[in-house]
Amino acid sequence: MDLEDVWPPFSLRIRCGRMDLSPVRESEYSELADIASGGVRRNNIPAFLVNWDSGTPQEIAQSIAQYQWSTRANFRVDDWTIEFTVRVNGHAVGVQGVSANDFVRTQAVSTGSWLALHEQGKGYGTLMRRAVVVAFADHFGAREFNSGFFEGNAASRRVSEKLGYTPNGVKTLVAQDGQARVEQQVMLAAEEIIRGPELVEVAGAEVVRRFLGLTSA
Predict the structure, then answer these.
(1) How far is residue 58's CA from residue 50's CA, in Å, rounded to a whole number?
(2) Mean pLDDT calculated for residue range 175-192
């Protein structure tokens, strides 16, 4: 029995141009920690709720491992997260996450991501989010995509704008710096996705659909 048989999400592969996304595996934790240790936020602007990215290299590695393990330990059909290692020409550049509550009924997902600081400004943030929203719209029936960014996080705002997200209110949350900050909420309907010229190819969707309790496409 292969690991994909034990944990079907490992079967999922998404490709968009030079970019490949596949669910994070334990063998990749050290590689992801290495690229994260150089920084993932410009100008130290808060971007996360948990301050996982500003510790020592060992602390960052442990935070990545602990979180990734938790996504599988806490995985339920009605409350799940799938985190993808994002690679460009075979080299890891960051992580793109997709999560949902009661997806079978709501057909709504949320996204979150991080990109190594030295890989930012190359269009990867837009491409990786476009890859997952198109994949989940076309192969999993997602109809609504939600995201958010703290005020001042211009890069995340631009990604949302490029893909067609529209404002959907605000929340006040305690950010990774311990301060209460305003998070801008944005929403994207599947039919309003601004698709790029790159074809989004998906492999392994059917076995993951069954794992998520979805009927056949």
Answers:
(1) 16
(2) 94
